[in-house]
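Example record

Each entry pairs one chain with its bound ligand, adenosine-5'-triphosphate.
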Amino acid sequence: MFKINLEEIQTLIQKKIELFQAEISLKSDYGKVIFTDNDIAFVYGLETAMLNEMVMFPNNVVGIIIDLRNNYVGVALLNNNFSVQEKDDVYRLKKIFEIPVGNELIGKVINPLGIDLNTKKIIKAKKYVPIEKEAPEIIKREKINFPVETGIKVIDSLLPIGKGQRELIIGDRQTGKTSIALDIILNQKNKNTKCIYVSIGQKNSNVANIYQKLEDNGAMSYTTIVNSSASDSITMQYITPFAAMSIAEEWLENGEDVIVIFDDLSKHAIAYRTLSLLLNRPSGREAYPGDIFYLHSRLLERACKLNKKYGNGSITAIPIIETQNGDITSYIATNIISITDGQIFLATDLFNADIKPAINIDFSVSRIGSNAQFSMMKQVSKAIKISLANYHEIAAFSKFDNSLLLDEKTKNIITRGKILSEYFKQKESQLFSNVKQCINLLLINNGLLDFVYSKKINEILDDFFIFLENGHPEIINYLEEQKTFNTEIQNKIIEIFRNFSITKF
Ligand code: ATP
Ligand code: MG
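Structure tokens for the complex follow.
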């Protein structure tokens, strides 16, 4: 295989076009392969073909037109079996690439061609839709004002994600990115939400483990996995997130809530860069093509919350980006940060210090803010934000831990900060309902745990919640329904905790 050189290729293509010109009328529905390399082919003819249209090569190889030039087109091969050769005939299928959608996909692991990867059979669906679609207009949309309950304490209280929001998970390799995404899916059980886990360029064995985890936890009953692995063609990897969005949109139009996780868009960007370089497009920063921003913005723009008139459904998009050495200023990372409504930043140093989930709160943000929280969560999270801000301000002192030198007020701030830091530690798959989180935070804010050895905090709070569930289910029911605290309920919970703690410590 020879290396691609811009000028060489242009002359080569020009020469071949001259050869074919006599043979093919430009208006015809078939063309001829001028040149092919890896997962792409240049095809002469097909003058009337459209962008994203499918074409057929010999041996059932299917391609998608992704580049329209003056008198030839660039085609990305989907199921490349390396049989395509120069001068092969290419036929238009006069169809934009489509994916099956609907409830038939729930519980399945599919590829973007609509093949069930467990049975290796094509999914039979009632409906097929193109993989690219315009994002809903502003007039159809509504303000984001309802939370996606993630079950992850630090996210639900400090970095709330709203239904219809786009929130990025960003961090180095092995910092817990996928785990957070999977926990969000696990927490959607019985919440009338459908989930799509989109895996791009991962090893098949990884995807098998993810499937198993979701299956074992009963989450596949509302989840679809759309997968193109590292061993699939780069074209497949390129179309995978778009296909997943189309699947989500079908449910959206039905008025349903959908969460789509893209794991990850760094690999997607690399696949697109490879395709673009093979297609001989000019490259820009970090060798990515000029339209890489547009590629991801048109994908993520399809996330939305629709208003009542259009069924009130939502698509929440959670893309993942892998960074190198915590550098969030790389090209793709900055692009996605600017497209999304916030980011959850995972840090290797926190992960290594066993602070998990390793979310660096200072670098993380959710621009939807408390608009997407239940009123009870708003009520308790304000105080913890202040406590944490105060704590971070004087955290440097606490390293000395010389309590003799600190005044009472500073000591209290440090105690509260330490308690909160410990409280936010959470194991994988151990998810907390909003009600439980709010009760915990109410107690912390009222100083009821200030005298407890901080490592014991979570154990005590867990025990107390079980105690409350058993002894006072009416309180839990009230909060689950009303989603707000009143003074009476607050005082009651505090009083019950006081009595509980007398028996405990
Ligand atoms: P990669 O870059 O390889 O995709 P990642 O950032 O997606 O990695 P994960 O695969 O989610 O990271 O997690 C890495 C490891 O950390 C896994 O072994 C996982 O079990 C563990 N882990 C993640 N979150 C937690 C947690 N909250 N508590 C304990 N262990 C965790
Ligand atoms: Mg991962």
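The radius of gyration is 27 Å.
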